[in-house]
Every structure is written in structure tokens, then in C-alpha cells.
Amino acid sequence: MFRGFYTAASGMLTQQRHAEMLTNNLSNANTPGFKTDQASVRSFPEMLMQRMGQKVTTPNGKISLPMYSQVGLLSTGVYMQEATPLYTQGDIQETQLATDLAIVNGNLPVNQENGKPGTLLFVVENSAGEASYTRNGNFTLDGAGYLTTASGNYVLDDNNNRIRLNSENFSVSEEGMIVENNQPVARVGIAFAEDPYQLIKEGDGLFRAKKGAILANGYNTAGVSFNVKQGYLEGSNVDQAQTMTDMLTAYRTFEANQKILQAYDKSMDKAVNEIGRL
């Protein structure tokens, strides 16, 4: 009986966390460069149930041996193991702002271990002074003329230096070269993650590599091709219709587990307050 409580409760907790993840996806549907999360739901190891008994081996019944008969498998619940970002490219939308940049994927080598293509990201400097990565190209110029993200992180060039400009009167070529007053100033830093599923979300649309690793330079990686478009932004890759459907499914599953939990509670009430009187 108590095991049934735990199994139903684990299902409710899993669907609650799933719904929270989907809500976050939906709330970021209009965030440039946002990568939707996908839930990985796993079950706990199943238990093999057996019934214990005795088998009499002599006519007078003085000797008996233990006997086991298999009942079957019993599930012990589920849990949401992790939320994994989906790195497919979002729609490219025109903004006509000089400081807005978008990476348009070309050829991306496929990782041999997971069979998924890598991903390209802008290189920025986080609040700790370390390299972070983002697909959100909604940049701006701060008071000192540095190119920054909307949250104030410095955008870095391909040599990991901050990019400083005199005004918004600059152009960016498809190869990522920033030109101001007909002079090349810097090249926008773009990194290539061979296995993007090893990246960790930091918040504000930022990612970081595990254990402080530095991603490869996207310009120098063999087999990688892409374009940089000025005056454009990459939208999120959230499928709003599918996300709403998944949210309804999560709510219905939560309610089903809730009903089961209530049924167990009523059965326990009878066992304690009615059967216990006899």
C-alpha cells in the first residue's frame, strides 16, 4: 500500500517538473536565440515480486521446504532525469538594427558518438570574466562603446578580446568581419561545439562548456560553414502549438496520478478506521 503512495507521488512530481520546463519554454518563445528544452523521463528499476510459501515433503507433514513462486514485475515510479536543449536553428527575422547579428548555419559536422550535428555560438565574456556562449545576437553598444549583450556581457572577437566601436555606423560581413570607416576593426568571435549536449545553461541565454573547457574557433574548424547576417536576429525554436499540447498532457497525467493517490488514501482510511475495529 505504501509503495503505491510513493509510485503515484513520483509520477506527480515528474509531471510537475515537466510542466515547469514547458512553461519556461513557452515564456521564452519570443526570446532571440532561445533553445527549447526537452525532458528525459526515466523509470526507477522495476522490482521482481515473489510469493513465499512452504511445501510439505513427507506424509506426516513434519518436514517442509520454503517455496517461492514468481508474481511479476512491479514499477517503483518515474523521475525527470534532465532537460536537454534542442539546438535546431530558429527562424531568421529582420530587425534592420546594425547591432543585431544572426548566425545562419551552413554545414555542421555530425558528432560520431551521438549522431547529432554540432552547433555554432557567439563568444561573450560572462560576469566572472570567463568565456560563455550564446545564440542570442541581440547586441548593443554600452556607454564606453563596447559591443555587449542585452544583459551587459561583453561580446568577444575571434582572439577573445572585447570589441570597441565608435558608433553604430559599422558593417559586418558574412564572414564576421566588422568594418568601421572602411577599416576592419575585429572579427566577431564564433565558437563551434562539436557535442552541444555537453554545454551547460547559465541563464540569460548563455551556455558554458563543462569543466571550463574552451570551444573550438568556428572559423578554423574543418568542415564547418556558416554566414553572419547583420540586421537580423535568430528567433527561438520553440514550437508553441506542440508545447501547449505537451502541457495539457502533463496536467492530465498529473491529475490521473492524483486520483490514484486519493484512492490509496481512501483504502488506507478504511484499513485503519474500519477494519481495525474488528
From TrEMBL:
GO terms for cellular component: bacterial-type flagellum basal body. The keyword Protein transport does not apply. It comes from the Bacteria. Residues 229-273 form the Flagellar basal-body/hook protein C-terminal domain. It is found in: Bacterial flagellum basal body. Keywords: Bacterial flagellum. NCBIfam families: FlgEFG_subfam (TIGR03506). Belongs to the flagella basal body rod proteins family. This is Uncharacterized protein. It comes from Peribacillus loiseleuriae. The lineage of its organism: Bacteria, Bacillati, Bacillota, Bacilli, Bacillales.
